Amino acid sequence: MAVPSVAQDGEISRDGLVLTGEVVLGFEAEDNRALAANSSGTDSRLYVDYTLGGSLENELTSLEFSLGGSFQQENYATLREDDGFSDPFFRLNYSRRGAGSQLSFNVGYRQSELVDSLGLDLDGDLIDETFLRSVGDREFLTVGASAEIGIDAPVGARLDVNRTDTNYSGQVNPDVFDRTTDTVRLSTFLRPRQTLSFGIFAERSEYDAEDLNPLPTGQIIERTTDRLGVAVEYQINPILSFSGSVSADEIDEVLDTGATTNDSGIGLDLELTRQVPNGQFSIFANRTIATGISRTQVGISRALSMPRAEVTFSGGLSSSDTGDTVFFAGLDYSRAFPSGIMTAQLTQDAQVNDDDEEVLRTVFELNYQHELTPISSIGANFFYLRADDIGSGAADEGDRAELEIVYSHALNRDWDWQLGFRTRHNNPSVGSSATSNAIFTTFGRSFSIRP
Q: How far apart are CA 186 and CA 202, in angstroms?
C-alpha cells in the first residue's frame, strides 16, 4: 500500500462539513526488502493503516484536514523489529476569502520508517540520497502561509512564507543529513487594464544543513539566496498571451570547512502561449543561477485535447556554462477505454540540487486500470526513476524501477479486497544492483459522513 503523503489532495465538500475515514488491514511478505546486494531473507508484516479526514467549505472559508498512521506487527530478517504505532502523518489546509483579499495557511507532518532508498523518494524531494540505501526514520514538516490583497483590483500585493524541515534518525549514512529551508516572497501587482499585469517581487531563501559528516568535506551547511525582479502577464489578443519574469539573483554559501562563496547573475522565466482549436502551443525559456553555475533551458510545449484522450508533451534543450548540454522532455497522457483507463507521465529535467550538483532527472510513471466485472478490476503500475550527472561528476547516478500488479474485488457495499505482487529493482552507479519481490493482500473500507 502507498503511504499517504502530506501533500496529497483530499476530498473537498462544496456544501458544508464532510468527515471521511479509511481503514486498511493488510499482510505483506517481501524478499530483500532493504534492496541489499545479497538478500538475507524474507520480511513480513501484518498492519492496519487508518486515516481520518474532513473538509468544510462555505462562501468565505475552506478547511481540509487528514491524519492517520499505521499499527503493525513486523518480522524483519535484516532490519529492526518495530512493532506498534508508526508512520504518523497530519495535513491541514485553511483559507479565508474577503473583499478582494485572501488568507491561507497549510501545515503537513509525516514520520516514516526508511527501509531502503525508496522511502527517501516520498514527498517529491528527489535529491541525491534517492539512490542511497539507508535505514532509520525520517520526519518531514512543512508549514506555509500566504496573504493577498487587491485581488482583481488595479493594485495588489501578496506575501508568501514557507518552511520545510527534514530530520533523520537511526542511520549513519554521511550523505543523509538534516536540512531546513525557509523562504519569504513579497510580490506587488499593478493592473493598468484587464489584459495587462506587472509588478515587482523580492524573495529570500535560507538553507541550513545539520548532522553532516564530522570530518570537513566541503559540504554546504548554509546558503542564502536573494532575488529581486519584475514580472509581467499580458494577454496580447484572445488567443495569444505572454508571461515572464527577470530577476537579479545573489547566492552566498558557507561550507563546513569555513570557506564562503558568493555568486550572482540574471534569472529568466519566459513563456509565449497560443490557443489553437484543440488545445494550446507554448514556447518557453528559463535561466537559473546557482553557485558557479548558470543553466539555460529553451523548449516547446503542446497540449492536445481529443474525444477520449488528453495529452501534453514538451521538449527542449538545456545548456550550462559548466556542465553538459542535454535534451529534456515531458509527457502527461490519459486515455479512456470502454473498460478501463490508462495514464502516463514523464518528467525529464535538468536540475541543480542542494549540493550545487547538476543532475538530469528522469521520472516515468505508467498506470492502467481494467474493469473485469462491475465489482472487480485489475491494475498495473510502473514507476521508473533515473539520475544522470551532467556537471562536475560528483552527483550520484543510478536508476530505480518498480512494477506493481493488483487485483481488486468489492466484497460488499462497504469492504474491498486486494491481492497484489510488487517487484523493485535498484541499480546504483557504485555497488551492486539488487531486486526485491513482494506479495500482499489487503481488506479496506472507506466512509464519509455529513453531520
A: 5
Q: What is the pLDDT of residue 137?
A: 79
What percent of the chain is predicted at pLDDT more than 70? 87
Contact 436, 30 (CB under 8 A): yes
Give the span between the Cα atoms of 252 and 264, in whole angstroms: 9
Question: Could you tell me the CA-to-CA distances from 290 to 184, 196, 325 in Å, in that order?
Answer: 18, 31, 17
- Grouping H, G, I as helix, E, B as strand and the rest as coil, residue 120 is helix
pLDDT at 17: 87
- Alpha carbons 398 and 118: distance in angstroms, whole number: 13
Strand 309-320 vs strand 326-337: parallel, antiparallel, or unpaired? antiparallel
Distances (CA, A) of 414 to 122, 378, 446: 30, 19, 7
Which triple of cell numbers denotes residue 151? 485581488
pLDDT of residue 78: 53
d(CA 163, CA 145): 9
Report how far residue 262's alpha carbon sits from residue 423's, in angstroms, rounded to the nearest whole number.
Answer: 46
Work out the number of other CB atoms within 10 angstroms of the CB of residue 246: 14
Radius of gyration of the chain (CA): 24
> Residue 344 is which amino acid?
A
Distance CA 4, CA 50 (A): 10
pLDDT in tens, 189-201: 999 998 999 999 9
| Cα–Cα distance for residue pair 401/20, rounded to 1 Å | 33
Residues 6+ apart with CB under 8 A from 320: 293, 294, 295, 296, 350, 358, 390, 391
* Cβ 136 vs Cβ 117: under 8 Å: no
Is the CA virtual torsion 22, 380, 413, 10 positive or negative?
positive
Q: Check if the beta carbon of residue 426 is closer than 8 Å to that of residue 398.
A: yes
Helix (H) or strand (E) holding 61: strand 61-75
| pLDDT band for position 118 (cuts 50, 70, 90) | very low
pLDDT in tens, 32-70: 877 777 777 888 889 999 999 999 988 899 999 999 999
Q: How far apart are the first and last CA of the chain?
A: 30
| Grid coordinates of 404 | 506493481
Q: Name every residue whose Cβ is closer than 8 Å to that of residue 359 and which is 6 or more positions away in sequence.
A: 128, 350, 351, 352, 353, 387, 388, 389, 390, 391, 395
CB 172: neighbour CB atoms within 10 A? 9
For residue 124, which amino acid is it? G
Distances, alpha carbon 277 to alpha carbons 84, 85, 274, 281, 397, in Å:
57, 54, 10, 10, 42
Residues in CB range of 339: below 8 A, 6 or more apart: 370, 371
d(CA 15, CA 278): 34
